[in-house]
Amino acid sequence: MNALPFGKPMLGEEERRAVLEVLESGVLAHGPKIRAFEQAFCAFTGAPHAVAVASCTAGLHLYYFAAGLGPGDEVLVPAMTHTATAHAVELTGARAVFVDAEPRTGNMDLDALEAAITPRTRAISPMHYLGYPLDMERVRRIADARSLMVVEDCALALGTRLHGTHAGLFGAVGCFSFYPVKHITTAEGGMVICRDEALARRFERVRAFGMDKHVGERTVPGLYDVQELGFNYRMSDIEAAIGCEQLRKLPRFLEARRANHRVLLQELKAIEEVAVLHEDRPGFEPSYYCLVALLRGCLAARRNDVLLALKELGIGTSVYYPHPVPKMSYYRQKYGTRDGDHPVATRIADTSLALPVGPHLGPEDMRRIAAAIKEVLVKRR
Ligand SMILES: *Cc1c(COP(=O)(O)O)cnc(C)c1O
Hints:
The chain is of the alpha/beta class. The protein has 2 domains: 235 residues, Type I PLP-dependent aspartate aminotransferase-like (Major domain) (Aspartate Aminotransferase, domain 2); 128 residues, Alpha-Beta Complex (Aspartate Aminotransferase, domain 1). It contains 12 helices and 13 strands. A 7-stranded mixed sheet has the order 1-9-8-5-4-2-3, sandwiched between helices. Strands 7-6-11 form a 3-stranded antiparallel sheet, with no helix packed on it. A 3-stranded antiparallel sheet has the order 10-12-13. The mean pLDDT is 97. Pyridoxal-5'-phosphate binds next to helix 3 and helix 4.
């Protein structure tokens, strides 16, 4: 039987044609595709402003840099996230302070979040784990009471909504990723959304060296001024052209993810050795990045063995995430993380299987995945 990959970019004739058009136009950067992609992204999310950048990590760093974050500042980030959420803070010289997960959804534990606030805390950087919405209304109340910035890492949250509002619109900024296995791809790429127009204009300058005029705005060709420090964090027009086509397909992708997730969830409920991270809450609309199942009892210690056995059966899996970020060597050495710290995030990292629900798969594939899990677990009871 053919293998079912964990993730697969969904690219077709439309993306191929769009790329060729940009190549033939000769305008590879600063061109019209960037603006078109940003506008389409605003239309999908309801964001007032969107600025295309080189990656989600670049977007997070761009914001912290623009906000003047630096040594002596602390930012609260989930322990259970991609390294990028913490690295973006550390790159400025500020300190990432890690908050454990809660056991039902794997999202940041908001009681632990409140307890971790110190006089040095400047910002909270929530991440919607697997695209399941964090309770941002409560995060806002916590942040507003202490004038903290809220910086949403939305890399897995394209399509995530909370009471109708898209993820990324609850704080100062939301940053998205278009890396190949995410909900849509531009190969590499990211997007920053915000409500503040002056901030959006600032992002446009800082993503391009701090120049006051980009190529299309210069009255005399070649003349511009630089009034502040900046990066080259731009996206190319080739990437933006792919993004425009991907956004058109996004509603179909999300519907396929939702349908797959429902089938797989139902199938897994019949397997007593696994517990699934998910909650049905009114108004909470996930983007269904993948489905994470925790192994119970004595099987928990044999997780890697289970992953390898599934691989033998052609089932693509992954682990989200292989270690809580504070237990990655860099952070463990820098901050002296102990083995017992962040117990919930650690249990998810050590005992879970991340299973695919992407639009490259269908309901029959979900049944095959569940059957394979059952087969593998029964043998190991
Ligand atoms: C993938 C991912 C990132 C990194 O995105 P890039 O676009 O590769 O920088 C950041 N945060 C989370 C939660 C991710 O899953």
